[in-house]
Amino acid sequence: MAHTRLEGSTLVCSGDWTVRHLQAVEDQLDGSRWPQGTIHLDLSGVQRMDTGGAWVLQRLLMSLERDGHVVEMHAVSPKFAGLLQLVAGTRMEAGAVPRPQRPAMLEQLGLKAVDGLSHGIGLVAFIGEIGAAWLRQLQHPGRIRWAQIASNLGEAGHRALGIVGLLSFLLGIVIAYQGGVQLRQYGASLFVADLVGLSMVRELAPLITAIIVAGRTGSAYTAQIGTMQVTEEVDALRSMGIPPMDLLVLPKLFALIVALPLLTVFADIMGVLGGMLMSSVQLEIAFSTYVDRLGVAISVDSFLVGIGKAPVFAAIIATIGCYQGFQVVGSAESVGRRTTMSVVQSILAVIVVDAAFSVAFSRLGI
Amino acid sequence: MHTALNDSTQAVVEVSDLSMRFGSKVIHEHLDLSVRQGEILAIVGGSGSGKTTLLREMALLQPPTSGTVSVLGEEISGLTEQQTLQVRRRIGVLFQNGALFGGLNVMQNVGAPLREHTRLSNTLIDEIACVKLSLVGLTAADGLLYPNQLSGGMRKRAALARAIALDPELLFLDEPTSGLDPLSADAFDELVLNLKAALDPTVVLVSHDVDTLWRVADRVVLLGEGRLLAEGSMQALSRSSDPAVVRFFQGPRGRAAQASV
């Protein structure tokens, strides 16, 4: 440990003046009351010193001299003298650490508003670019990247089957369990099939699938494109005359528009199966009765309403995921921030659009 | 623990019978090398000759497949996690691309090791960080910049400031001048020499910049074909008749660098 002790007008320094042992000295020096006139610094007890220790000494020296003291140093070994000289040569002043300028509150508000607005405009422009790229591909169907679409389809669709299936199955069980208890009180146990079937097919299966896919696939899109942005791979594509839109965005978008409705159908089935299991266990409804009831309860319209929402959700997730990926600048931290934003925004957008669908469908009487 | 190092012939890093394989790919085999107290040792070799891998093994970043590495008097494979940490605190590493933390500004980057390993006040840590920045030729105002706002040369300097934050006894530099223009590279060589004179660390650097080797290195080891092909001062190596050494140092660039010394 580094120590200082004031004896008359002599400050006796001792110990290890290295960054790891300086804390005590920092506190001692802060509380020191200095006598008038010449101050002697005795370094004979100092065993080791590094630049941190030299800086603390230099800082003390400067502050004493500023207060009008004359400072004399004693027993400075050549090595310490070299360090002190090195630190003094940096011309660093105590307390001269620059601080970042924080904009005032009103300015911050303004900056945030402008930022939000420019991102909104950017997103609209991005959607336009996707449209333009898509039209270009339609004119030259040979440029459609089937291999990319297929591999994205596998990644976003087939590999998501497990998690989507499991979660919708559990959701079906929960709805049947919670609803069944209530329905039994009215002697309407059989209607549990209507409850599970309709709510899953119309509303919950599309929504839960979209949310899982936003977290699973949308985030991957952002992270992938964002990392490529950081490592300049996106620029490399541009320089080779390969539009990043064609290679990175359109295949993902198409793949997800195909995959999400299919996943939703799978989620429908698994949810209904979950409900069936729970109904049979808790409400003693036979499988055959349940299935008969489903046929009555779920109209083709209801099924199509649910499935019809899925491609829209897919477009939202893929667009936001890719857009946020392209917004990455510079660092790994930016990739992380953009990925978070991508997931939050796509889930938010999916739920808002789902609410809009509900209103629209009820107006249309579907 | 420092008494063992007072003997100037004592090796700071001792590598013996070191082998490294990635799968079936042999990087190096049965390598012996020692780094002496206070010297600047350069590891050179063609691309893929395992320079950086060797540096990473010596800097405790990559365990070797077999063989032993002793760093600062400690045999590293036998160390507990706590002891490894103790050794790491005495080592500074400058990574090839700087590896500055993107979410922190330069001053925070330099202060990070101090904040982690000392209990100094934030003010003092920031001041020490500014002193280090000044030592590597950056201004305190540069400390407010974020890594993605820095030019290549500034990034190297900032990364070096972070590497010397704890005044390491042993400093590893991975390609210190790669990606720098000749003027910045010269300035960086100068900086390394100045820091070496001021703080006296033992320096191990990996480079294939022949100018850097002539100006900075006390001793050079040439890696190739998975083994140590030659070692010695640049003067000695430039006079060597070993074909591998001649091929490496007597190309047009090598001769130009020698002529300019």
Which CATH top level class of the largest domain in chain B fits? Alpha Beta
Strand content of chain A: 5-15%
Succession of helices and strands of chain B: EEEHEEHEHHHEHEHEEHHH
How does the helix and strand content of chain B classify structurally? Answer: alpha/beta
Number of helices of chain A: 12
Biggest sheet layout of chain B: 6 strands, mixed
Largest sheet of chain A: 4 strands, mixed
Spatial order of the strands in the main sheet of chain A?
1-2-3-4
* Oligomeric description of these chains: heterodimer
N-to-C CA distance of chain B: 40 Å
What is the CATH third-level topology name of the largest domain in chain B? Rossmann fold
Provide the number of structural domains of chain B.
2
Poorly predicted runs of chain A are: none
The average pLDDT score of chain B comes to 84
Structure explained in plain terms:
The complex is a heterodimer of chains A (366) and B (261). Chain A has 366 residues and is α/β, with parallel strands linked by helices. Chain A folds into 2 domains: 3-89, Transcription Regulator spoIIAA, CATH 3.30.750.24; 109-364, no CATH class. In chain A, 72% of the residues lie in helices and 8% in strands. Chain A has a 4-stranded mixed β-sheet. In chain A, strand 3, helix 2 (51-66) and strand 4 (70-74) form a beta-alpha-beta unit. Chain A starts with a strand and ends with a helix. Chain B has a 6-stranded mixed β-sheet, with helices on both faces. In chain B, strands 2-1-4-5 form a 4-stranded antiparallel β-sheet, covered by helices on one side. Chain B has 2 domains: 8-90 and 173-261, 3-Layer(aba) Sandwich (Rossmann fold), CATH 3.40.50.300; 101-167, no CATH class. In chain B, a hairpin with a 2-residue loop joins strand 4 (66-71) and strand 5. Chain B has helices at 51-58, 81-89, 106-117, 122-135, 152-163, 182-199, 210-216, 234-239, 243-249, 252-259; strands spanning 11-22, 25-36, 40-45, 66-71, 74-75, 91-94, 170-174, 202-206, 219-224, 227-232. Chain B has 261 residues and is an alpha/beta fold. Chains A and B meet through helix 2, helix 3 and helix 12 of A and helix 3 and helix 4 of B.
